[in-house]
Amino acid sequence: QEDLAARVASMSPRETQVLEYLHAGTPVREIAEELDVSEATVRSQVKQVLRKLDVRSQLAAVAAFESAQHS
């Protein structure tokens, strides 16, 4: 759990924001519109989140984020 919390803490503010949108079920296209960036930028940020959390899917990233919030 501490390792997971450290991984979440290592994310940039924008990566955390993108993960919060994913946690809320927001599609990449809508995240891009909300943040006024391209879908490619959001996808790149999602890849960074997956790498930093050491997970392979957006669903796993959301689960890890939720777990870290409740610890």
Note down, in words, how this protein is organized:
- The chain is an all-alpha fold.
- Helix content is about 75%, strand content about 0%.
- The radius of gyration is 11 Å and the shape is elongated.
- It starts with a helix and ends with a helix.
Order of helices and strands: HHHHH
What percent strand? under 5%
Task: Identify the quaternary structure here.
Answer: single chain
Mean pLDDT figure:
93
The coarse overall form would be elongated
Low-confidence blocks of residues = none
Tally the beta strands: 0
Label this structure with key terms:
76% helix; 71 residues; 5 helices
Briefly say what this structure is.
By secondary structure, the chain is mainly α.
Give the topology:
Elements: H1 2-9, H2 13-23, H3 28-35, H4 39-53, H5 58-69
Helix pairs in contact: 1-5, 2-4, 2-5, 3-4, 4-5
